[in-house]
Amino acid sequence: MTDAGRAVVLDVIGLEREHVDAGLAPNIAELVPEPARADLGMPFPAVTLPAQSTLATGQSPAAHGDVANGEYDRETDSVALWERDRENRNRLWETASEAGLTTGVFCFQHLIGTSADVALTPSPIEDEENTILEMNCWTNPDEFYDELEADYGHFPLHTYWGPGANETSSEWILNAARESVERYDPDLLWVYVPHLDYAGLAHGPSSDELAEAIGVVDELVGEFLDSLRGDDRWDETAVHVASEYGFHDVDTPVYPNRALREAGLLQVRDDGEGGEEVDLESSTAFAMVDHQVTHVYADEGAVEAAREALSGLEGVEHVLGESGKEEWGVAHPNAGDLVLVAEPSAWFQYYWWRDDADAPFYARDMDIHAKPGFDPCELFFGDEGLVSLDATKVGGSHGRGDVDGFYGVGGPAADASIPDTVDARAVAPTLADRLGVDVDTDFEHDPL
């Protein structure tokens, strides 16, 4: 590829090559001609945080350690989603920033503390019960969010996730990214565009809702591209459009924690408000669910009992032990003792109760911090609370890694063609090669 003075990455989550080829996204199709379109192969598991870390580092989950959206702490018997610190991990924008380039990144996970020159991630001010007291975003530089809020209002968190999720959040993020170009002129700009994810999860890839959402996001991307075309650096710009995964249509929710409870391996306790909370300290096995993937953490003597309890569940295609984790690329200390892979039409829900009257207090609320597993039911309003407990409503899922995302490159500084299929681990080193910086990756590759 030709060297580019500026690289822009648009992570249009849920976009697939067939959507572009079929004309559902005309602005993206105009930017990325057919020889420059590819299927993007994502290493297992194809869920948000592992996929983002792979794209931004050039490493597989077994190397970078993000094997799920959640993280289980064996020492404290605690689980948390979305809360891992950056620690000493460098992603491409941090590497490029340290090399003297100006970098920007918007709404990727684990951005707080990044050294990117301009960065933004939602960070509402909450009380001890995780109740939002005030909307806020963490930004570099500090005053950037106040300036954005003055021009565009507060970040619309209620449209970023939950029953009210829609394109408003994508529009706000792209407006903020456009402001970053005008104010800070980054050499590398990486932008997460979220809202296709909502239609894909709620309604599935075969739905009219997803097709309509593709058209909406394409219009927003088109407006952002028009702003880039009008600035002084367009002639030296290459725009990379990437998507972390595609979706399966699903109709079978699977409940591994119920099976572990029935086998006497998972224990519960009173949550203090009339419901049942999982008692991780007293349990000998627990399943941290994540779309079509589940990590099962078990005491040393309980692994085989957990395997026996889970192997026969309808909707479970694979139960991976040590050799299976090696084969599937998740052999890392953060992974479960067992890893479950769902059948294409199935997905995993965290519930351990049978009667909804026994659900913990947070189950009917939008509380991503309290729930020890990813909950797509948060996309549906409930009859007795904000969030539905009817898992059969969920129409789409992902994680198996067998539905490719999309990758394409366009703009004046892009070459005319790329390989038909691109390994997601090649994205970061290709961008690094353009920008003249080095990244450590865990596979042999040539820049695209």
From TrEMBL:
InterPro entries: Alkaline_phosphatase_core_sf, Phosphodiest/P_Trfase. One of its GO terms (molecular function) is isomerase activity. It holds the Pfam family Phosphodiest. It comes from the Archaea. This is Isopentenyl-diphosphate delta isomerase. Keywords: Isomerase. It comes from Halococcus hamelinensis 100A6. Gene3D superfamilies: Alkaline Phosphatase, subunit A.
